[in-house]
Amino acid sequence: MSGILVASNRGPVSFTMSEGGALSMRRGGGGLVSGLSEVSKELDVLWVCAALSDGDRGAVRLAPGGRLDQAGYETGALRMLDIPPATFQRAYNAVANSTLWFVHHLLYDTPNRPHFDARFGREWESYQAYNEAFAMALAEEASHGAKVMVQDYHLALVPAMLRSERPDLRVSHFSHTPWAPPEYFGLLPDEVAAELLEGILGADQAGFLTDRWAGAFMDCCESVLDARVERAGRTVTHAGRTTRIGVHGLGVDGRALWERAREPDVESHMAALRELVGDRRLIVRIDRTELSKNIVRGLIAYREFLAAHPEWHGRVVHLAFAYPSRHDLPEYREYTAAVQRCASEIEDEYATEDWDPLILNVQDDYPRSLAAYRLADVMLVNPIRDGMNLVAKEGPVLSPNSALVLSREAGAAAELGADALLVNPYDVSATARAIHEGLVMPEHERAVRGDRLARLATALPPQRWFADQLAALG
Ligand code: G6P
User: Fold this and answer.
1) Which helix (H) or strand (E) holds 5?
2) Scanning 18, 50, 174, 359, which has its CA 20 to 30 A from the CA of 465?
3) How confident is the model at residue 27 (pLDDT cuts 50, 70, 90)?
4) What is the pLDDT of residues 140-198, one digit of tens each?
5) CA pair distance 305, 300, nearest whole angstrom
6) Substitution candidate for ligand 1 out of 10, 179, 328 with most atoms within 8 A of CB
7) Which ranges of the sequence are coiled-coil (predicted)?
8) Distance from the CA of 151 to the center of ligand 1, in angstroms?
9) What DSSP string runs through 103-131?
10) What is each CA distance from 183 to 169, 188, 219, 417, in whole angstroms?
């Protein structure tokens, strides 16, 4: 029985199974997971997550009650749920990633998608079953009065399900994504929209990364549920219960990031990159190949910058790291192809015998990313919409002399807007101008802005975010 529990779809570790059936364990990636892994071990938190792969399922089958920490793995307290693969696929791919993610990031191409038909009805039932599996596991593992912190859009129904099972618990839900405005959230079938909101309102506290996303959530509660919203006091009252709305920004642990970025593997990637690009100036982007990250418009902006500024030909290189993501979804596979097409057009148009204007890397490589951060002159972060965006925070920490071109639609813009070069992510020409502005910004100005950006980026490390969530639960 545990007194503090965290629930998220993706957990802190993943397993792969070799052809011979041997399991090997890997730490999960991403700022949140690495930040939380440390805190959760210190505070003796039980982490509940889903088995995502055959390797994970193999490990769970060998673990008593799905408790990997009791099967001899060095994970911190961890329970992985082996949800039937078909149910998991429909809940994760069809509902969470193809529907909810699209809604919150305004990604639909509305003449064609979405359409909510009988098939969606079955997918929604799987999403309910998957949420139910989490709620049941949490109810089983939580001690009396325990605090349960439920993460993200995958698990929106869990708080209400858990409350009806275990009214003694204190429950929070946190959205790491933006929240859609009511007119876009209203694309969802009415009963689905209501169930999602009521699911989250089952929590004592619903947390968001910025005021803007918290405000949109409150607007949706008002328009879909006719709930009573107190904007100043940040509460939503519905069906006789009041839920507090919290805003908790998330930044990076500067010291841990620097420690990692000074390791020899990063240093040798730096040397290799330097060898490749010489003393040319570097424009760097690092993303999952994710529709909301707006990589294609970023590349077109770079092309427009090259067209407008022949004086930079041969003197600048764009390092674009676009790592594989969600390849089960056709939209993501098509997007990956579009990124590659656009990159080769730029190569065809501008490359010369001794100058590669663009290096596109599609293999995930964390130490190489850290090396690129350290070498950047300009960081390009131009998502269509983003809950926060930690690249915008890691960049200034590891390269305090770089300029940051940042989409005004990223949550990070609320904190970093004064010292970044803010752009409308749809405005390719403005993005091209900002890239140029970043390159020609006087060194002193870049250093002053960079220093302030780095300080803001480290003001809210994951440990602090976690402690604030816990404190909010009383
Ligand atoms: C976003 C979400 C996370 C998710 C991550 C990676 O940051 O907020 O919940 O884990 O993307 O996506 P994936 O589908 O690979 O877990």
Assistant:
1) strand 2-7
2) 50
3) confident
4) 999 999 999 999 999 999 999 999 999 999 999 999 999 999 999 999 999 999 999 99
5) 9
6) 10
7) none
8) 10
9) HHTT---TTT-----HHHHHHHHHHHHHH
10) 34, 10, 10, 26
